[in-house]
Write a structure and sequence with these properties.
410 residues; alpha/beta; 6-stranded mixed sheet; 15% strand; HRDC_dom_sf
Amino acid sequence: MGLFNKLKEPVFLKENSNAEIQLTELQKLEPFLNSEGQTKIRQDIKFLEYGIAGEKNIIFELKNSHIPMYILHDIYLELGDLSAQIDFLVFTRKICFVIECKNLYGDIEINNTGDFIRSVEVGGKRKKEGIYSPITQNQRHLELMKEICLDRKNNRFIKYLVEKGFYDFNKSIVVLANPKTVLNAKYAKKEIKEKVIRADQLITYIKETCKQSKAAEESDEGLLTWANSYLNLHKEIVKDYTHKYDSYRVDKYISQIFEEESAVSDVSEIMNLENKAKHNNLIEEIKDETIEINEIITSGIETQKIDLKDREKQVVNMLGTKATEGEAEECVYTENIEDSVIFLELKAYRLTKSREERIKPYYIYNDSQLKDLIIKMPKTKDELNSIAGFGEAKVKKYGNDILKIIEKYL
């Protein structure tokens, strides 16, 4: 070990996980399903919560290990048609541990052929069932990592060295994170036993394996470079966790609205669009989704202006003769902001961009920020940047489009 190494404790270079996002998505969707769908999604939520709890147990163990190492959580790697979702990559000074977390309920038996058998109590009876081998699953992850390493090497001799020594520096380990799980591996082969441990044994396993390794220790700089080489390959993937429940949705039309951040505000938006479309005999086209939202908005602009003028006159009467036309207009504008054409157009733009980028609409701006945007009506990027929620990155990405929409209403 280098004399000037300063790393003394574990450091997470990536700690977040898609599982938390998936859980939130399913919890939001549950009220929109029929009773059969809710039964299914609650079961999936339960299993997902098990998995998250298990990973948190491992995170706790790693954080309290006092081992100098870098950790990557929930890493997605790709090479050609191959891909792997890896629970943890733990980079110590000698070895990278590829960890597959299993928070299984029931007791686990590994027989002499390497099969995994789960035993659970069901109605007072013991039920056994085979499960897919997590060792096989994690071995595939390891194989992909090796192929990635080989793919990055051009020199044949270097490739030979990687091929020969890869498994000396990279170890697969399956961690059973449920503290209540009883592991019975007395008939399993030695090489199988060594790859399956309980969460409370993880740190001891890492220390002992590193102690037995004859590899030279990496410096702080080398260790960080090693960990970053995989972090840089990680790909953020956007998954539709709700698609499998489509057939259980109570109302497919409303479920489409669910893509927005607030079901209530989205239902209101659709109702507004429908009311405006009725004046132009377009309601059936909206439901069939055969026209663009922008066309609906354009067709309603003149009607909106007439409605606003009528409301201004009403407000002048309420405020008295001292009220100026500008004051009346501002009052009406604030009162009817969610019914205004500009509100609908900016919301339609937000929905369109979110679908293009496959992100949640409120990541672009939420309804509160949208209202603030309309009240302040910025004319430049600097003015837009001064509005809460619109930082430099967001202004750079969406600023021109937003300002073009606002300009039409100035």
